[in-house]
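Take a look at the protein record below and flag anything odd:
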Amino acid sequence: MKILSAPMAGFTNYAYRELVRFFGGADIIETEMASARSFVELELRSREYPLRLWGVCGESDVVVQIWDNSPDTLSEFAIRLVNDFGVSGIDLNFGCPAKQIAGRSESGSYLLRFPDRIGDIVKSVVLVSGDIPVTAKIRLGCTADSINAIDVAQAIESAGASGITVHGRTAADMYRGNADWDAIAAIKPKLCRMPLYGNGDIKTVEDAISRLRNYPVDGIMIGRAAISKPWIFSQISAAIRNREIPPEPTDIELNRVIRLHYELLTKQLLPQSAVVQLRKHIFYYVAGKALSRQFRNIICQVNDPINFFNLIDNFLGKPENSDNFTKKFRTITT
């Protein structure tokens, strides 16, 4: 059973991926979704790479998720990812329901209308990727009246893909309602060899174990729940193996996690920019705590690192040298 860390625009950058790696438990870690067309056009103009690929070169066990509707453009991007970036895998996005992707660009979930076209895209990318596995992420269909995930999954498998992740909603659903895991499970008997990973509404360790035990999937993908708990993958991994489950961090330990996240961000960004990037993660880290709303309203206006961490210390408690949450956590998970 594999545990996958989902691609999430604006969140799964280098620092977040390294944080997930630090805590462990995730078998596959994906980047933010990168535009193949933007990569090709940017390189032609300036020989530069998109910011979403920062840190990918030399990064261990990273899968880059890419999108477009052109087999040629996606294949060109794939060749560069394999040869120049040394990626461990390429994931094709056929599930994004965002208007700028599925609407104006006729990519992402828009392509679910055309299983054969998706098959052609997958086949083209597989052919140029050599031994690097190519996977795909889809939704159940465009609308409730046009669910065709089985047809799409079979086209993807026939084209030579190494796996498929299915989010249990339609594109029209966006993130409303509940993910339909019965619909995800119905795909498995229709596949011959390709692993099936389920995605949607896994918020806790208990949710993850329930999905793995009750549905015929080969693994699960977790997205939004891991923004607030990047250690959830290690907790799930421990539960699968009947090992001691690492505890939730105390407030002071969470402060240490936030500081580690900041240190990772400063490898790419200037201090103030790192604070701005980290602020949106803080909203998730402190969700559910007393006075968290008031705290978020204050901290979202702060850019200076010293003032930022003073506020964090006042809210969560100031770590002392004797507090070593990271060491304790690693002892349990390794």
